[in-house]
Write a structure and sequence with these properties.
By secondary structure, the chain is an alpha+beta fold. It is about 15% helix and about 25% strand. It contains 7 helices and 16 strands. The strands form 3 sheets. It has a 7-stranded mixed β-sheet with strand order 3-14-9-16-4-7-6, with helices on one face. A 5-stranded mixed β-sheet has the order 1-2-13-10-15, with no helix packed on it. Strands 5, 8, 11 and 12 form a 4-stranded antiparallel β-sheet that branches. It is globular. The chain starts with 5 loop residues before the first helix and ends with a strand.
């Protein structure tokens, strides 16, 4: 890993400014009702106009491992970006092909999984979520799950076992049963609805998983994912049975596969406004990470196990020390690979290789065309 600091690496890059939203040091979370949701935007009361560093030029996948010092890398920054055109950019495919989940699953998913193997060296990559973001119409109100969504002793942490994470028998919200909005199969398909449109950009600084949240996720999201992660879960269970903390023992335990979660973010047209901002992990302190409890559906099961469970994510407290990056005028042939969790990095920080991120509002771009993007969330196993 490079010894160059975040400040040294980014000081020579072109800089613009954008608005990022944080929670305050005294913030008290309210219950989250939206599955996979974040706190309401009204709770992000610390708004800051922050320098945003352009990470261009982007390497190709083949160039990434030997790219010049300071190039954004997963192991240093928590994210990377590469030139990686898709076959969906060429005939016989059209722009409409990107909005057809069956075509995306048949063609693009395999491309992304192979790309992640090449970038990370992982042996197995499983795509679990396809998420379309874009112009958005109204979404029905979502009833609160019956389980609590505040912090509490029922949530799995390093002190509480994960072998029986929090579940509830509450049914899935009605609108999540609409197959055009949220398909309850694997991979999960979100935002392809002709009725509601895409999911709007997330203009709230966050990281999708804490370490406990990642572990809960592979156990309760979908049985296909749980089966693929069987060796991981077994290794964690062995360490827990021996009363050995996972944070300090898993990465060096025998027969404990390294595993990680990544988001692969591609725009569907040139990004003119609200680009994806990426927080350099080296610039965030431990006290900047605030865990929150998030309701999530347990899908692919029948009977009493079907319903909601509680997982954990991070939001951030603001700091002028944070260093934010983006890809200026990002094109459809360019992708961002964002780290969300890495079992090999848990000893580095509470973020365990995951990078804070948010859409960023740039004042001079507010009148531009809304962005559209496709995200794939993938689990990688070595």
């Amino acid at each position: 890993m490079s010894s160059t600091t975040a400040t040294e690496t980014l000081s020579i890059t072109p800089i613009t400014h954008g608005k990022l939203r944080y929670v305050t040091a005294t913030w008290v979370p309210k219950p989250i009702l939206q599955p996979f949701g974040l706190p309401d935007i009204s709770e992000y009361t610390d708004e800051r106009l922050m320098p945003i560093h352009d990470i261009r030029p982007l390497p190709t996948i083949d160039e990434l491992s030997t790219a010049k010092e300071g190039t954004a890398q997963l192991l240093t920054h928590g994210f990377t970006a590469v030139e990686s055109p898709s076959s969906l950019h060429s005939s016989p495919y059209t722009a409409a092909s990107w909005r057809d989940p069956e075509v995306v699953q048949r063609v693009y998913v395999a491309e992304v999984e192979e790309m992640l193997k090449r970038i990370t060296g992982a042996q197995t990559v499983i795509t679990e979520v396809l998420l379309m973001r874009g112009p958005h119409k109204s979404v029905p109100d979502i009833p609160a799950p019956s389980s609590p969504t505040q912090h509490g002793p029922d949530h799995p942490t390093e002190e509480t076992p994960i072998d029986a994470p929090t579940k509830t028998s509450a049914p899935l919200p009605t609108h999540l049963q609409d197959k055009t909005l949220f398909k309850l199969h694997f991979p999960n398909i979100v935002g392809f609805s002709p009725v509601f449109g895409g999911v709007p950009p997330a203009s709230k600084t966050h990281l999708d998983f804490t370490p406990a949240g990642a572990r809960t996720h592979i156990r309760l999201f979908h049985p296909t994912l749980t089966a693929a992660c069987a060796d991981i879960i077994a290794a964690e269970d062995r360490l827990r049975a021996a009363s050995l903390p996972l944070a300090t023992h898993y990465a060096r335990a025998p027969n404990a596969p390294r595993w990680a979660i990544y988001s692969v973010w591609r725009p569907l047209k040139p990004v003119k406004r609200d680009p994806l901002a990426l927080g350099d992990v080296r610039s965030f302190a431990k006290e900047d990470y605030v865990p929150i409890k998030v309701p999530a559906p347990t899908i692919g099961l029948d009977g009493e196990n079907k319903g909601m469970h509680t997982m954990e994510a991070y939001v951030a407290r603001g700091s002028d020390a944070h260093r934010w990056c983006y890809v200026s005028e990002q094109m459809p042939e360019e992708v961002v690979v964002l780290g969300l969790w890495d079992s090999d990095r848990e000893g580095d920080s509470v973020a365990a290789g995951g990078a804070m991120h948010s859409s960023v509002e740039m004042p001079e771009r507010e009148g531009e065309e809304p962005r559209e993007s496709l995200e794939l969330r993938c689990v990688a196993i070595w």
